[in-house]
Design brief:
This protein is α/β, with parallel strands linked by helices and 264 residues long. The chain has one domain (6-262): 3-Layer(aba) Sandwich (Collagenase (Catalytic Domain)), CATH 3.40.390. 26% of the residues lie in helices and 23% in strands. The protein has helices at residues 58-65, 74-87, 93-99, 131-144, 208-223, 246-255; strands spanning 6-16, 25-27, 35-36, 103-104, 110-119, 150-154, 163-168, 177-184, 189-197, 238-239, 261-262. Strand 5 (110-119), helix 4 and strand 6 (150-154) form a beta-alpha-beta unit. Helix 4 (131-144) packs parallel to helix 5 (208-223). It starts with 5 loop residues before the first strand and ends with a strand.
């Protein structure tokens, strides 16, 4: 078996500030990537439900139908670019492309074989509330209902999970969440980790409503989305909402209607 190269990128670092400090919830991230020799090696930290194969033509449709990313050639790029342009209304897919150097990464279709998610419950960590785990699980459920071909199932064994969600007391940076995922050289996401904070950097605690919003934002990065400047969306870098917007859902659906890879 030949070794595949994997890249890990931090897709978002979400910062929440108290209302006394700011009238919203802030996020910061710096995209980075690295070449790896396995899906969890050498990590780098940084932040229309149809799959769409029938709407693509030529090699792009054939590769998408087979579950592989299409070659990085002009024909594929033209097919994907045409579909994105045609269906971009009501989405922020162009901002995702700008944030990723004209690249899209996503999971393969996992509607029949759900992604396994392990959620830590660190009862001994100061500030931990039992309800936080449920708020995080709810976030996965909301994205599952957004129309993307992903399903999630929660498991007790962390070793076999595709996704790990853990907590820390706080970050040294002014953030409250961080998502890291690994992709292969065809831009399929193969594993992911989410870390959420229990406190702001100044030590003030996060409540369950804020924790739910943090988790929604970070699971959005796990799905494959990047930031948008529109503050009415959960994926805005300064989050002011606590639920997914129509644009959040539409952008995720559009992402999952095309093959992953570079779009030129």
């Amino acid at each position: 078996m030949s070794l595949r190269r994997f890249a890990r990128a931090t897709m978002g670092a979400l910062a929440f500030f108290s209302a006394a400090v700011a009238a919203g919830l802030a996020a910061r991230h710096g995209p980075q990537a690295a070449e790896l020799t396995g899906p969890r090696a050498g990590r780098i930290e940084a932040g229309d439900v149809a799959r769409g194969a029938g709407e693509l033509t030529g090699v792009a449709a054939e590769m998408e139908a087979s579950g592989e990313a299409a070659p990085l050639d002009a024909r594929r790029g033209s097919d994907v670019r045409r579909k994105l342009d045609h269906d971009s209304r009501g989405t922020y897919i162009d901002e995702v492309l700008r944030g990723r150097d004209s690249s899209l990464a996503r999971w393969p279709d996992r509607s029949a074989r759900p992604l396994t998610v392990w959620v830590q419950t660190p009862a001994s960590l100061p500030g931990w509330q039992d309800g936080f785990a449920n708020r995080a699980r709810d976030a996965f459920g909301q994205w599952e209902l957004s129309g993307v071909p992903l399903r999630f199932t929660f498991v007790a064994d962390s070793a076999s999970a595709d996704v790990h969600l853990t907590w820390v007391d706080r970050f040294d940076e002014p953030i409250s969440g961080k998502t890291l995922w690994a992709r292969d050289d065809r831009w399929w996401i193969v594993s992911a980790d989410i870390v959420l904070a229990l406190h702001h950097r100044d030590g003030s605690p996060l409540d369950q409503s804020a924790m739910h919003a943090i988790a929604l934002h970070e699971v959005g990065h796990l799905v494959g989305l990047d930031h948008t400047r529109d503050g009415s969306n959960i994926m805005a870098p300064r989050v002011r909402v606590r639920e997914l917007s129509a644009a959040d859902r539409a952008t995720a659906r559009l992402l999952y209607s095309v093959p992953p890879g570079r779009v030129r």
